[in-house]
Design brief:
172 residues, Rossmann fold, two-stranded antiparallel sheet, 6 helices, 23% strand
Length: 172
């Protein structure tokens, strides 16, 4: 377990992509990472597509980037819900500003847009939100994983192995 002692947040909200939540969750646990599931505070349990549930450990206003090494934002339609909660958006921004690992897959790029952290960054995402990321100042490319500093982005569930390899590399 090469990452024992590391602590990572995984954000969750309604309609999260179950693969993009559970794959990172268990992959980090395999590496010895302490994983904290953080929601908006609107519920204690969130339902993903197509129905898997995830229970939260804390809400975004109860945690601080200074106590963690990284944050992962799964996709699905959850990021569109997450960005409606200033505490969730600020949490992502605080991780980025502290130069800690920020990882976003699929539609999670919406959270990066709302956090205002994309100007000058090279990223990827699900193709449907490409214009949103470009309009927020990012350089968008179609690759399975893009690492720009401590920012990791991927396009879709098929990219999860490369995505998590990049996240784990940055956390070491």
């Amino acid at each position: 377990m090469s990452l024992k002692g590391k602590k990572v947040i995984i954000l969750v909200e309604e309609m999260f992509n179950v693969f993009e939540f559970w794959y990172p969750y268990y992959r980090l646990k395999e590496e010895g990472v302490e994983v904290t599931v953080v929601g908006s505070g609107s519920s204690d349990v969130y339902t993903g597509k197509p129905g898997t549930q995830a229970k939260v450990d804390a809400s975004a206003d109860q945690v601080s980037a200074k106590n963690f090494d990284g944050i992962i934002i799964p996709g699905g339609y959850a990021p569109d819900m997450m960005r409606r909660y200033p505490a969730m958006v600020n949490l992502v921004k605080n991780f980025f500003n502290a130069n800690k690992t920020v990882a976003a897959i699929c539609h999670a790029g919406w959270m990066l847009v709302s956090a205002g952290i994309l100007p000058g960054k090279k990223v990827t995402s699900f193709f449907a939100i490409k214009d949103d990321l470009i309009n927020a100042g990012a350089e968008w490319v179609d690759q399975e994983v893009v690492v720009d500093g401590k920012l990791v982005t991927s396009r879709m569930p098929d990219d999860l192995p490369a995505f998590m390899k990049a996240v784990i590399d940055l956390l070491q």
